Amino acid sequence: MKEAANFIEQIINEELEQGKVTGVYTRFPPEPNGYLHIGHAKSICLNFGIKEKYGGKCNLFLDDTNPAKEKTEFVDAIKKDIEWLGFSWDKETYASDYFENIYEFAEQLIKAGKAFVCDMSAEEISAARGTLTEPGRESPWRGRSAEENLALFRDMRAGKFKDGEKCLRAKIDMASPNINMRDPVIYRILRQTHHRTGDKWCIYPMYDFAHPICDYMQGVTHSLCTLEFEDHRPLYDWVGIELGFSPKPRQIEFARLNVTNLVMSKRYLKKLVEEGDVDGWDDPRMPTLAGIRNRGVPPEVLKDFCDRIGVSKANSEVQISYLEACIRDYLNANAERAMAVLKPVKVTLTNYPEGVSEELDFEINPADKSGRTRKITFSRDIYIDADDFSLDPPPKYFRLKKGGYVRLKSAYIIRCDEVVFGKDGQVEELICTYVPESRSGADTSGIKVKGVIQWVNAKTAVDTEIRKYGYLLNDEQYPGQDFSERMNRESVMIFSGKAEPYVFENSENTAYQFIRTGYFKRLNVKGREVLSEIVSLKDNFNK
Predict the structure, then answer these.
(1) Which H/E stretch holds residue 213?
(2) Burial (Cβ within 10 Å: 0-12, 13-18, ≥19) of residue 180
(3) Residue 399 annotated as catalytic
(4) Deepest of 16, 118, 175, 352, by most Cβ within 10 A of its Cβ?
């Protein structure tokens, strides 16, 4: 028996031991009405992880029961995201594959006196639903005969009624303490072209009715859902029992993944895209899997993150700093080091020979025990970042200041002798001298410096746009408020920087750590290549 890592696996182990199931069959069931976000990654890892652990099966099941919001574009994006995470499904299935079966099961309920055609509008049904302390009111059409209901339902399918004119409701109990069991609507009239079936159907099943039927038709043993479906489980079971499903799939709920500072709502993510607040579903600021992939986060990080937070029964919120810590841990060990300056300031080394360049050894990644290096070029004229120089340094400032020393990464120690200001009063150039005996790896100067800064060679540096990102939501300032009130309107910062040419020589997905700045990758933005931040170096997570 497999060792259980969470309460769901404990349930599976018990059922296997008791012979209630002989194998494990799960499904990942997104609705193709948008791109998947980081919250879906937890469900993907859970469902496919159980398949792998128990040698079972897992389907990709597309819940396409609402044609008004669904597109083939979203189906393709979902499949790409799952494959990016490294999982494969046993079957690709759709609710629309079973529309005929679902319809036949609805007729079965009608014939058994368990469903009726109702003429009430959606608003009237809602008003008659009752409250948590008061029972609902029965529909005036609840007493229709099975023969009349069957004829009306077939007329609904034939398109003889207008949208919303009639619906099919399960006949359960209008006094049930669970409002979901108060004669829920299980079919509605909806004239919308479906992305797979076109205009074949003008009636569509509701999710709560289609869900247990599709699970049963696929042979699913364990239907894993997030906690908001816990109150729907009695209806899930009712459908399975009334239709005689054997074996009947079991629904188990788990806590969804919520992360601070991220928009975790497909409806609002769609709004951001449609209103142009972001550059599409794959904008690096978006918490969609497409956005996270475009940001440069490796799939191994997301899988590790989901594994670390685990599976629980109670909803909670994970600090985004924890996710960022997972990203840093991985990139620190795997990303190459490189150099780029966001706010370049010219440095002239007056005692370095003009027209001369030399090659220096640059360590690719200190975490790599092999000590691999590559060559970088050094010359009289270089650029450093404006943030690495101070005219009025605070105490314990170890970067460059006038009259002070600092080491250039993998190069020499330099001293700032003079500061040249531009017409705007900003620092335009630093006149410096270098210490010839201080070459990295062969330093005989005897000068002790604590600061090490990055730089780029002015002769070879590439002008480039560099982007850093803030969070989409200001959760700390506006806890619990609507997304629109929490939006960070300054979530992207753009710099006209300079980078060593090496960062443009490898594939677009190569991650680099820019010394003391953060982790970056190349990104194509509307036909322009920029350097885009994956995650900053600053770690706010309290380990």
Answers:
(1) helix 207-218
(2) middle
(3) no
(4) 118
